[in-house]
Design brief:
This protein is α/β, with parallel strands linked by helices. Helices cover about 60% and strands about 5% of the residues. The protein has 21 helices and 5 strands.
């Protein structure tokens, strides 16, 4: 991603930056303001371009996956999966995220697209990239079925050709294994060269992160949630589609079991003309769904839960929901055919496709409403730090600060985890941490040497591998030039004053003033329906907000 950022930075010199500024950052400003901002290295614009690149890559993988479903299984399933995937709130915020889980989601789609077309070598190759290059080794379980399927196909090909028995089967299997090993060595060699360039020594981040998580390295410090956390999360981001997706494999296997138990009846047979898929494609469907259940079996029991841990199975949920819909529609039509004349319940595959789209449309509308709610309710941190970047660039003191090389601190306490990216920090500006109720280890800025060992010689802060609090991360309020805090609209007598407001009040040499404020949802004071969905009717009277505020200081000399 660092390489992509460098390429985009060079590309910006030849692109219409003002048009990109208006398009990607969705901001209106005066011509003078834009000229000043564009004369500087506009890091927020580069951030938006990076996110847009991730979205384009995600779209490509999604279209590849859908095209493979259309060509190898069923056009109906492809269209239904597309509707689910394009509208779900989960994909809305997973696709542009620069996270290992989002990258794994993209690479799984590419792997699945190749596997559906029978290109097992490429399918395994994309899986190796996900496991070795992304830095998230746990995702290997998503591609176990990919490798086993390739080995099974090697044996099947030998049987179909009537080759010389066990010897040929072993040779084909060994060929698959050797090819996989060579691809793995090639990918790992490239990854190690990149790591050596940035770390200055031979190191395996994949092994380190695996050991850290396998030995319970203290991730519970960042929150422990019950199993219901994931259940609620899937319902919020996928609503009924998520439920269908999880039930898809049991429904499919249940229908196949009934079909084998009652072979004399056509009630449980798929592919009688109503649908474009057939029973012969059931193996491919199961192949696509099995990794989802393996992943849930591993992730769900972990005490520390985050929404991003579910990103890799989002494509499988959408595909599974389409399979469940097809199975239910098929069974319903088969039952109706026993009651009514067949001509009255035998629509064409195209009509079945439209019927499925109609049935999924209400849930698509709900998902779109959820996406709008996420944007309107929780975009304040991104807007505020963009405002801070513009404000700091435009300030009269900017020139003198650059000349004197003084570091300007924008500080926060409990809101540290909502800081979007260092792309929103102007030159000579750093994020400062004020002591808050959080008692875990906080990050610290990179030195000029990055991750190389020379950083250890000049780095002031210490690190530990159990996430214990390091007090050297904190600075005093007197060192801060700006402060970010989430402030309730009305602080009652029994409510505790936000930590940053307490710090500012206790700062004897500073005169703090509010520079900007953006609306952030007050989840406790807003009713559940308007908190979950974007409903324009009576929104102003139903939704309550807190202020996501930016403060600046004038110090007495």
């Amino acid at each position: 991603m660092a390489g992509l950022a460098k390429c985009l930075q060079v590309l910006l010199k030849f692109l219409p930056r003002q048009q990109l500024f208006n398009l990607l950052l969705l901001q209106s400003s005066t011509t003078t303001t834009q000229e000043i901002l564009l004369d500087n290295d506009d890091k927020p614009l580069l951030f938006a371009m990076l996110r847009s690149s991730l979205i384009l890559l995600s779209c490509y993988s999604e279209l590849s996956f859908l095209s493979s479903i259309h060509d190898t299984i069923s056009p109906n399933l492809a269209h239904w999966t597309a509707l689910c995937s394009f509208t779900t709130a989960g994909n809305f915020h997973a696709s542009p995220a620069l996270l290992p889980s989002s990258t794994v989601m993209i690479l799984w789609r590419l792997s699945a697209a190749n596997q559906l077309r029978g290109w097992d070598g490429y399918a395994i190759l994309w899986g190796l990239v996900a496991v070795l290059a992304v830095g998230w080794p746990f995702c290997a379980v998503l591609f176990v079925s990919t490798g086993l399927w390739a080995l099974w196909k090697a044996v099947s090909i030998s049987l179909e050709r009537n080759d010389d028995g066990i010897g040929m089967r072993w040779r084909l299997m060994v060929h698959v294994l050797i090819r996989t090993a060579l691809h793995a060595i090639f990918i790992q060699a490239i990854v190690m060269m990149i790591d050596y360039y940035y770390y200055g020594k031979i190191v395996s981040p994949i092994w380190n992160i695996f050991v850290y998580n396998a030995t319970a390295g203290g991730d519970e410090l960042y929150g422990v949630e019950p199993l219901s956390y994931y259940v609620k999360n899937l319902l919020l981001n996928f609503n009924f589609v998520g439920l269908l997706g999880i039930l898809s494999l049991p429904i499919l296997l249940g229908r196949k079991l009934l079909a084998s138990s009652f072979p004399q009846t056509t009630l449980f047979r798929l592919g009688d003309g109503h649908f474009s898929s057939s029973g012969a494609s059931d193996g491919l469907k199961i192949l696509m769904l099995v990794p989802m259940y393996i992943w849930m079996a591993i992730v769900f029991p972990r005490p520390h839960k985050e929404e991003r841990f579910l990103f890799p199975i989002y494509p499988m949920l959408c595909f599974g929901a389409s399979i469940a819909l097809e199975e239910v529609m098929m069974m319903s039509m088969q039952v109706l055919s026993l009651i009514l004349p067949k001509s009255k319940v035998a629509p064409s595959p195209n009509k079945c496709m439209l019927l499925g789209l109609v049935l999924l449309s209400p849930f698509a509308v709900i998902s779109i409403s959820r996406s709008f709610a996420l944007h309107h309710n929780y975009s304040a941190p991104l807007d505020l730090y963009q405002h801070f970047y513009n404000h700091h660039i435009m300030s009269k003191d900017m020139t003198s600060e650059r000349e004197n090389e003084e570091v300007t601190y924008i500080c926060t306490a409990g809101e540290w985890y909502r800081f979007p990216s260092s792309f929103f920090l102007p030159p000579n500006t750093q994020l400062g941490f004020l002591k808050s109720s959080f008692s875990g280890q906080l990050p610290q800025p990179f030195t000029e040497f990055g991750s190389k060992k020379e950083s250890l010689e000049i780095q002031e802060g210490a690190f530990n591998d159990v996430n214990k609090e390091e007090m050297d991360r904190y600075i005093g309020i007197h060192q801060c030039s700006y402060v970010v805090e989430l402030v309730p609209s009305d602080i009652s007598d029994g409510e505790e004053t936000p930590e940053c407001l307490q710090y500012m009040k206790s700062d004897p040499s500073g005169d703090w003033t509010q520079v900007a404020s953006y609306k952030y949802l007050d989840a406790i004071s807003t009713d559940a329906l308007h908190r979950i969905l974007y409903i324009p009717f009576r929104r102003s009277s139903k939704v309550r907000h807190k202020g996501y505020n930016l403060y600046s200081v004038s110090r007495s000399k």
